[in-house]
Amino acid sequence: MSTQYKIAIGSDHRGNSAANQILETIKNLGHDAWIVGDCDEQPCDYPEKAWQVGHEVTSGKANRGVLICGTGIGMSIAANKIDGLRAALCHDELTAQLSRSHNDANILCLSADLLGARLMDKIIEVWIKTPFDGGRHERRVNKIGMIEQGANPSEAPV
After folding, report:
1. 60-69 as b/e: b if 16+ CB within 10 A
2. Catalytic position from the list 13, 39, 44, 69
3. Residues with Cβ < 8 Å from 139, sequence gap 6 or more?
C-alpha cells in the first residue's frame, strides 16, 4: 500500500487553471489535495501563495505542496525562504524524480506557461511516487537545514 499524502496547492493568476487541473490529478492518484487562496481569476502575487502553501506544510496540515506561477521561478525563490521547505522547480519527469530521491523536496514548483497539461500530470505522478533515497543524500539535506539556521554546513559532524 502506498502512502497517502495531504498536498496543498497554490498559484498566482497565471497558474490558476493549471492548479485546478493538478488538483484533479492529485485526487485521481488517491491523495487529499486542496487549493489554498484561490485567485478567483484576479491578479495575485506569487509570494503570498508561496507563504500560504508553505505555512500549510510547516504547520503539518499538509505533507507536501505544489506551487504554480508563470515560470515557476518566483514561487521557487519565495518558498525556499521558508525554514523547513525544500522547493524544487521541475520541468520534466527526471527533475521531478531527482528532486524527491536526492533532495527530499517537499514543495514542487511548476511553470504554467512552459509546461503542457500532460507533462504536468506526469511530473506530479513521478514526484508523488518517488521516495527519498536517504543515505548520502540525507547528509546533504541536513546541511541545507544548517544553512537555514545560519550555520556553516562545512562544520557538520561527519
Report:
1. eebbbbbbbb
2. 69
3. 156
Q: Is 44 a catalytic residue?
A: no
Question: One digit per residue, pLDDT tens: the chain, 158 residues?
Answer: 468 999 999 999 888 999 999 999 999 999 999 999 877 777 888 899 999 999 999 999 999 999 999 999 999 999 999 999 999 999 999 999 999 999 899 999 999 999 999 999 999 999 999 998 777 788 787 888 877 888 787 887 77
The residue with cell 523547513 is 84
**Catalytic residue flag (residue 102):** yes
Cell for 32?
A: 487529499
If one looks up domain 6-133 in CATH, what number appears? 3.40.1400.10
d(CA 11, CA 34): 12
| Active-site residue, from 55, 91, 102, 137 | 102
